[in-house]
Amino acid sequence: MNNPLKPALDKKTRKFKEYNSYNLQSNNYYLLPFRFIRLDEQNELLVNEVGDFLIVSSGTVERIVNKKLDKISDEELYADLIAAFFISETPIPALLDVISTRYRTKKSFLDHFTALHIFVISLRCEHTCHYCQVSRVSENKKAFDMQRHHIDKGIDLMMKSPNPHITMEFQGGEALLAFENITYAVIQAKEKAMLLNKKISFVICTNLAVITDEMLKFCKEHEILISSSLDGPSFIHNKNRHRNGNNSYELAVKGIEESRQVLGFDRVSALLTTTNLSLLYPHEIVDEYYKLGFRNIFLRPISPYGFANYNERKNHYKTSEFLDFYKKALDKIIELNLRGEFFREDYAAIILRKILTPFPVGYVDLQSPAGMINSVIVFNYDGKVYATDEARMLAETKDYTFELGSLDTHSYEELFYGDKARFFSDAWTNESLPGCSECALQSYCGADPVFNYATQGTFIGHRPTSSFCERNMAIIKHLFLLMEKDARIKTIFRTWITGNN
Ligand code: SF4
After folding, report:
1. 367 C-alpha to ligand 1 centroid (Å)
2. Architecture of domain 114-422
């Protein structure tokens, strides 16, 4: 019987050419997978599948792709491209195993699954910060504190994580208002971790206003880290973080000093939230952190979720305004480093670790697959389980899209591997998201379906109008250009990721 396809294949126009005609003889190299982007008028950035990069002069990508490179006259570039797996002289590179090992290393944060377990131990708070996504000013412990049976169930689920090193983080409201719950949870979790031979770390997120000597003693005994909040000098901090007496800043500074004395200098960190007011004072904010003895700062934009969304005048700003603030603050930080002081910007350091080392980064907001469930889970005060901290903030405005289930009714398997988790997984890798899949910065960026949903209404999102994309693209390109233009800055950046100051 005649093959019905044969006539079509025999047509001259449809016929496959001989193998060698796909293998240009004059410039005998093969293209390996890589992506590229223009950094500025003079520079193009090439990035391969494992995040190795080359910065070349404008027009070079076009020459590489069209096989116009000459092995002799472009000797140095040609050798760099071969060495960094951008091109190969054989169809399958001889060192393919090296690339696959590097790729596995980059994704090794997935090896052990969820590490960070957030327990929202109470929603009560004595502050009324205008950007607060969640807290409640209330004496009603029953309604807004986590119940013991939920703490027990949360610990049981946490122990089921395959991860040998888990972190239990207590959040609020103001977590220290439910300190008796924290002591109970820490002692229970430690006992269970010991039986299962797991390493466990504890973190308390607190504004430090109500911390006491007794609390610090307990934190010392159980090696608990303190994560506090500091928005800058008092005129910014007290404007952002309201409490009776208007003394949030004074209490935070006192609490930081006392915690350092008891726990050790490096056991106390601080987080900045950037409001409209902060945007006017990038240098003053950096100076304040430096003055208080911090040697790092995390320049964090406000999360566009929950109640923060309601206060347009104080909490809404354009991404371009944040980027302007970020760059000015970063300039100030670099200036400090050029004077011989070690001072690190943490968001830049996370990205730089992705750019300059083969290792993964344990930062849940810049991962692919996304940090949700894979790296972090939230057990809320009312027993509900959420995919991320931001997901529970959405729930506070009655949007339960990212609720995975309840500690009362759902098993580990249902929560972590259930239908909802599988549904979200469609949108949690930037390797497959429209716009991200061909982006040169993909290896240094991440995927965030919760952010996409909260800001754009879909899990997949729309990159050309995404503030997540705009911010990350601008910051990553800025870091590359800083390193390209000044070798001293590249050296400084290396100290930020090695800690060698
Ligand atoms: S979010 Fe933007 S910068 Fe990040 S990988 Fe996607 S397209 Fe690139």
Report:
1. 12
2. Alpha-Beta Barrel (3.20)
Q: Locate 60 and state its tokens.
A: 């070079």
For the chain, the first-to-last Cα distance in angstroms comes to 77
Residue 397 pLDDT level (bands cut at 50, 70, 90): confident
Q: What is the CA radius of gyration of the chain?
A: 26
pLDDT in the model for residue 28: 82
Domain positions in the chain are: 24-106, 114-422, 430-470+476-494
pLDDT for the residue 314: 64
Distance 431 CA to ligand 1 centre (A): 10
Helix count and strand count (H, E) for the chain: 20, 15
What is the band of 105 on the pLDDT scale with cuts at 50, 70, 90?
very high
Segment 310-358, tens digit of pLDDT = 666 667 889 999 999 999 999 999 999 999 999 999 999 999 999 999 9
In angstroms, the CA 495 to CA 480 distance is 16
Does 8 score more than 50 pLDDT?
A: no
Q: In one letter, which amino acid is 203?
A: V
DSSP string, 308-362: GGG-HHHH---HHHHHHHHHHHHHHHHHHHHTT---EEHHHHHHHHHHHSSS---
Q: Is 441 in the pocket of ligand 1 (CB under 6 A)?
A: yes
Q: Is 354 in the pocket of ligand 1 (CB under 6 A)?
A: no
Query: In a mutational test of the pocket of ligand 1, which residue from 47, 365, 437, 442 has the highest number of ligand atoms less than 8 Å from its CB?
Result: 442
Ligand 1 atom 7: residue of nearest CA: 436
**CA distance readout (Å), 321 to 96, 120, 298, 326, 470:** 44, 32, 17, 9, 12
Q: Is 472 in the pocket of ligand 1 (CB under 6 A)?
A: yes
